[in-house]
């Protein structure tokens, strides 16, 4: 049984009100099944429970808010189920919009910051190296642990908010340095720098690594380029879609892997797998589930599009117009769109014919009309989930491929680096 | 199949027909809670209904929203009757615990040794008891 502090026990006994009591009773049961001997403090949380699915998620949120629960630490909120300002332009039903908005309100009432993004690490709520946090959202968990070196377990919906309300987590797993060592070695063999610089590379690598890693912590050796943050973001989303990776190390790139030895804490890998260019080609092929060149929509922004990504896209589309037959949608957060607007990079993107959906995405909000069946994206996460969740087929390509395809009105891909 | 003794992560009784896969699963993007059907196009059980079945998968993967989808499935009456994994899977256990608190309908979640997991196969009728024992049922199927 987990040993509780006096304050933990008070919460469990209801001394601090019904909200903390409800949250602590869940947390204590989880601590016991994790095998935790005690709880520990966190100083930040990110809540994935915001995603409205149906009556159960709404009832859970309103139950907590109704009990007067308040978050005890600075807390950001993940995507919601609706773009409050833009949903009427899409196929969202008024009932869905109303209930998703009620769920948003419940989490705001608990005192969380209305960030409404799946890339909270690109807001002012970004955690720091070594910070103990409780994060939900699989891509954000992988990014926070791997790229920043903050410490979070893989928190599921319904538990993340309990951690935020109590300010406590079971002292287990990735919160503890000794459990952050790499377990398997993935060696890149003869992967040219030109390919590593391609903007699809890290998403494709992530898709492959997620499948190979299973429930182990992978260490990737052989990266010779300095990846942009958004490439590591794409990789984080990919490894946590095809797999359950909550922490990966890249030797010479991520903060806990200055050397191979450091990544493994001096231990020997349980397993070593070589990754060759043929494996990456196959992984890239898997991300494309469409055949043929027909195209209904280009979709960008899973995880949510960043200011840097808006800035890369702007010159690609400036002075051009997308084909009238194809939609071009970018999903992002309200904070990021504001910045893109202020820095001037949004205007050419809107002039191109792009639409922006805020605070949610096509996977979390039932917004796509049924006639949209064929998508193109540079996101491995969209490519992975859209066929199952939306009954669509997807072509995966680079950002430039997505733009060229939108202009042509059909799929165009530059295959030169991948053949 | 000999009787398997598993670790009850969330203890309880259940009976049903086993649905077994070596593929990990994300319920978000993998389970339609309105029907109880597995909808992950990458999964070996794609298209199969798991409602009321005893679902055996090695572990959960992917989205954090797996727990919320499973809670919706419990509320909608489309959840598996029990979930068996190798090792402790906190996602499935959490969904069951919260379902118990919200709706009084927790379902058993059991952790098996990998070798025992290997003895399960789809179509077996299984009985699970709160002590963590898993037996093949005999007599009249319900």
Descriptive report:
The complex is a heterodimer of chains A (419) and B (142). With 419 residues, chain A is of the alpha/beta class. Chain A is 40% helix and 12% strand. Chain A has a five-stranded parallel sheet, sandwiched between helices. A four-stranded parallel sheet of chain A has the order 8-7-6-9. Chain A has a three-stranded parallel sheet with strand order 3-2-4. In chain A, β13, α15 (380-390) and β14 (393-396) form a beta-alpha-beta unit. With 142 residues, chain B is an alpha/beta fold. Chain B has one domain (4-136): 3-Layer(bba) Sandwich (Glucose Oxidase, domain 1). Helix content of chain B is 20%, strand content 26%. Chain B is built from three helices and ten strands. Chain B has helices at 66-76, 90-103, 114-117; strands at residues 4-5, 7-10, 14-20, 31-32, 37-38, 54-56, 82-86, 109-112, 125-128, 133-136. An eight-stranded mixed sheet of chain B has the order 1-10-9-3-6-7-8-2. In chain B, strands 4-5 form a two-stranded antiparallel ribbon. In chain B, a hairpin with a 4-residue loop joins β9 and β10. In chain B, α1 runs parallel beside α2. The mean pLDDT of chain B is 95. The interface between A and B is large, with 45 and 40 residues.
